[in-house]
Design brief:
It contains 14 helices and ten strands. By secondary structure, the chain is α/β, with parallel strands linked by helices. It has an eight-stranded parallel beta barrel, surrounded by six helices. Strands 9-10 form a two-stranded parallel ribbon. Strand 5, helix 6 and strand 6 form a beta-alpha-beta unit. The protein is elongated and about 85 Å long. It starts with 9 loop residues before the first strand and ends with a helix.
């Protein structure tokens, strides 16, 4: 992904293997549909493994894949020539012949290291002195659950400067900081980030892809080439494949994140949306919506009536508001537009 000022970062997605772990019955067509949607979002590499490759057969042309392999992988010799990137664990690196074989086959090799705290992060500098370092193009640092110090990015930059190769950040989300860690690393000059859609994972959670992409777009470069307007479509596909419903208030993709009700909120949104919203809803394919309910005030009613094209007099607003609150309390939710129109018929 090319940003402004000629900087490039790489977004890697590992949603597909996690989705398959959640639902082994996921079809080939569903997997390929997810692959294309993720690419459209702005993903540069899609991580897969032998199970996924067996399921989809020949990888679709036009999508770049990162293949997870190991010394016991019997399929590595017969991989499609379109797969040019692979990732291996730190343990597999010690098998010099295996790593050299990958290197000889012209794979771009990423080595994965599980790191929690700053002390272990600093020790990555020692990789420079290993016999297998010359075969590696990039290292992925996963975990990062205990990097709460303000100095962690300083140590990370030192590691990158010493090693002189790409650094990929794949933070886990044990303490709900995965997205923040990923964005902070990118802002400090790291080369790539790995995440999953909604942060999904069967055995562990990750930084949320949609949050990271939106962070890149809003905080790092508005010129980043990605199509976040299709996130609602991707959300529907994800729910269909996994059976997991995305929470109403989930950042970026929750269906309720741009719905507002309170009177002071409605007044602020009407005057200046940036009072409450860090970015425009259409960036992520959503729309702003005013809901009326038990928390609404006079100003919110006036705004909603204008939105619905209802003629009103100031004298009627108090009575309309009273009926809206009463109805909202009785049904236990905000009111639909049709319900508001029905109330206004009789007042």
């Amino acid at each position: 992904m090319r940003l402004s000022k000629n900087r490039e970062i790489r977004v890697i997605d590992r949603t597909i293997p996690e989705v398959y772990l959640l639902n082994k019955r996921t079809s080939r067509l569903d997997i390929i549909e997810l692959c294309w949607m993720l690419k459209e979002m702005g993903v540069d590499l899609l991580e897969i493994n032998s199970e996924i490759l067996k399921k989809i057969g020949k990888p679709p042309a036009g999508i770049d894949f990162l293949y997870r392999t190991g010394v016991e992988d019997t399929k590595i010799e017969s991989l499609p020539t379109s797969i040019k990137h692979c990732i291996v664990s730190a343990e597999a690196l010690k098998e010099t012949e295996f790593i050299k074989m990958l290197y000889d086959k012209k794979f771009s090799i990423t080595a994965e290291y599980k790191i929690d705290g700053i002390e272990r992060l600093d020790k990555l500098k020692r990789l420079k002195n290993t016999s297998y370092f010359k075969f590696i193009d990039c290292i992925r640092i996963t975990g990062l659950n205990k990097c709460f110090s303000l100095n962690w990015t300083k140590v990370l930059k030192q590691v990158r400067n010493v090693l002189g190769i790409g650094i990929d950040i794949c933070p886990e989300n044990n303490y709900y900081c995965g997205t923040a860690i990923a964005i902070e690393a990118l802002m400090e000059g790291m080369d790539s980030v790995t995440a999953t859609f909604t942060g999904c994972g069967k055995e562990r959670r990750f930084g949320a892809l949609e949050e990271i992409l939106a962070g890149i777009k809003v905080l790092i470069s508005s010129e980043a080439k990605m199509n976040l307007r299709k996130l609602p479509q991707l959300s529907n596909c994800f729910t269909k494949v996994t059976g997991l419903n995305i929470h109403y208030s989930k950042p970026i993709v929750g269906k309720g994140i741009f719905i507002y009700e309170a009177g002071i909120h409605a007044d602020g949104i009407e005057k200046n949306p940036l009072t409450y919203e860090p970015f425009q809803p259409d960036i992520v394919g959503q729309k702003r919506e005013l809901a009326l309910g038990k928390h609404s005030g006079t100003r919110a009613v006036i705004v909603k009536l204008k939105e619905l094209g209802i003629q009103y007099s100031i004298e009627r607003i108090g009575e309309i508001l009273s009926c809206i609150k009463e109805k909202s309390i009785s049904v236990g939710r905000s009111l639909l537009d049709d319900e508001i129109l029905e109330i206004c018929k009789y007042i």
